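Now for my pick.
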Amino acid sequence: MIKHFATLASSHTYVLAEGPVWDAARQRVLWVDINGRLVLTGHLQGTEVVEDQRLSFSETIGAVVCSAVGELLVAGSRGLFSVPPDAVRAEGTVVTVPGPTLIPPDKNSRLNDGGCDPAGRFLVGSLALDDRQDDEQLLRVENSGQITVVDDHLALSNGLAWSPDGAWFYSIDTIPGLIWIRSYDSDSGQYGERRVFLKITDGHPDGMCVDAEGNLWVAIWGAGEVRSFSPTGEQLATVEVPAPNTSSVTFVGPDLDTLLITTASEQLSAAQLDRYPESGRLFTATVGVTGLPVPYWSGRSVNY
């Protein structure tokens, strides 16, 4: 098994950095600080990510994706909204377009990780804000505006990824440590029954991505690692990160050859923060493989 080491890639510390996305058309990185209530953009400077802009909101931000023309689709605490490309004003305020509410007001949950399938549909999951068990969902927003329940009875819906040919869909339920797999037809939207691909017992699987060879790269919360697994479930590599709460991962750069890793500074003791002072920052690693282009949001699902 190959071992890699991540290097520091940002000067800012975030509360809960998550959901990195490479926007190839604009050569930028998008990510969120969930509990910091931020959507952030930045550019690569060598192997570092230089923050360009931060959009501040009044609610937690679970995920962000981008359309081909640069419109942002944002998962807020309970629902979706979009940010047109020209909607950020000079004084820093943001004009948003409201979209569907996905979590009812009487349910103590919030939206979490999300991403686009190969056809540009947006999928997003939820997590409980109380001690309810196995009551969360993974939802898909169809181009018609209809909401499809892809999964229910989840503990904490998290990372999403698709195989290079789009025929297989991976999803994470963090608390039980499960990575699910199922067949997926992007053209029709049909998908098969889920089955367990992997169970992680030493740490909690969080965000993930797939490389051009079909291998998974999974951020392991609590372990300070990103682990790579083959399509048959064999562990191929580990990336060591000097921050215990590694939260998500993606490939960025013009050649998609830089692995970008987000981490969190929250949920760590004072002793842990002293030992891992770079917690909450971004990291990069060169791992000898390239990633897949990130599908753009179809841009037709929010304003109805």
